Amino acid sequence: MNAAPQGGVPGTRPEGIRDEGEAAAHVREMFGRIAPRYDLLNHLLSLDIDKVWRHRVAKRFSAILRDPRARVLDLCCGTGDLALAFRKEEPDGAEIVGSDFVPEMLVRARAKAGAGGANIEFVEADALALPFDDSSFDLVSCSFGFRNLANYERGLREIFRVLKPGGVVAILEFAEPRGKLFGGVYRFYFRRVLPRLGALISGNGSAYTYLPNSVSKFPLPETLQAQFVRAGYEDARFERWTGGIVTLHTARKR
Ligand SMILES: C[S@@+](CC[C@H](N)C(=O)[O-])C[C@H]1O[C@@H](n2cnc3c(N)ncnc32)[C@H](O)[C@@H]1O
C-alpha cells in the first residue's frame, strides 16, 4: 500500500523534517555522503536492472537524441548514468547537459564522461531554480531524482519553463508494485534487506532507510499524472515497468 495522502504531498520530507529548506539541505548532504559508493550500490542493489531502465529511456527518445539541433537536459543527473546512456545511444546527436546540486556527484559524472570520451556538459544547479533560459530544451529527463525534490509542483513548473513548446519531459521513478505475491516479496527486499545492505556498503544507514520511506510517501502514478496536467502539460501518461517497480512518466509542453 502507498501510505501517501493522495494529492496532498508537497515534496520529500525525510524523517523528522518539516519544511522545504531543511528537506533540500538534508537531501543534498545525504547524496554528498553516499556519492563515493553510489554507482556500486545502484548496480548491486538493483542487480544491474537500473542499466536496462536507463537504456530503455534512451531508446524511447532516440529520435530527439539523434537530432544534432536538439538540446537535452538530464535533471538530478547524479553520477551521470542517464546522460551517458543518452550519449551512447546517439554519439553525435543532441547537445546533452546534466545538472545536479551535489558537487560530489558531478565530479564523478565528469570523470566518467571524460574517460569514455562522451561530450556532455555537467552543471551544478538546483532543479527548483534552474539557471537555464525559458523554452530552451527539447527533452528534460530525470531518473530517480524527482522523488527527492522538496516541492514537486515547483519541480514540474520549472521543467515546464525550460522546455521548448512541443518539448517532452520524462521522469523515471521508483514505485511500489501492486501484486500481492510480487509486491510482498519486493517490499520485504526493499524495506528489510536493501537498507541493511546499503548501510553496510555505504556506511550510511539513514540514506538507505530514506529510499524505501520516500518511495512509500511518493504520489501514486495517477496522482502525479494529475499534477502534470495541473502544471500545464498535455498528453501526460505513465507506464509501469518491471512489475511496477518503476514508473516512466511522460508529458508534453503544448
Ligand atoms: C537517486 S539519485 C539519481 C541520480 C541519477 N539520475 C541516476 O539515475 O542514478 C538523485 C539525485 O538527485 C539529486 N537531487 C535531489 N534533489 C535535487 C535538487 N533539488 N536539485 C538538483 N539535484 C537534486 C541528488 O543530488 C542526487 O544526485
Overall form: globular
Strand order of the biggest β-sheet: 3-2-1-4-5-7-6
Bound molecules: S-adenosylmethionine
Note the run of SSEs as H and E: HHHEHEHEEHEHHHEE
Average pLDDT figure = 94
**Based on helices, strands and strand pairing, what is the structural class?**
alpha/beta
Beta-strand percentage range: 15-25%
Radius of gyration: 17 Å
The main β sheet shows up as:
7 strands, mixed
* End-to-end distance: 34 Å
Low-confidence residue ranges: 1-7
Total helices: the number is: 9
Percent range of helical residues:
40-55%
Descriptive account of the structure:
The chain is 48% helix and 19% strand. It has helices at 20-45, 49-60, 62-66, 81-89, 103-115, 152-162, 180-202, 205-217, 221-230, and strands at 71-75, 95-100, 121-124, 137-143, 163-174, 234-241, 246-252. Strands 3-2-1-4-5-7-6 form a seven-stranded mixed beta sheet, with helices on both faces. Helix 6 (152-162) links the parallel strand 4 and strand 5. The model is unreliable at 1-7 (pLDDT under 50). Bound molecules: S-adenosylmethionine (SAM). S-adenosylmethionine binds at residues 24, 27, 31, 42, 76-78, 81-82, 100-102, 105, 126-128, 143-145, 148-149. S-adenosylmethionine is lined by residues 24, 27, 31, 42, 76-78, 81-82, 100-102, 105, 126-128, 143-145, 148-149.
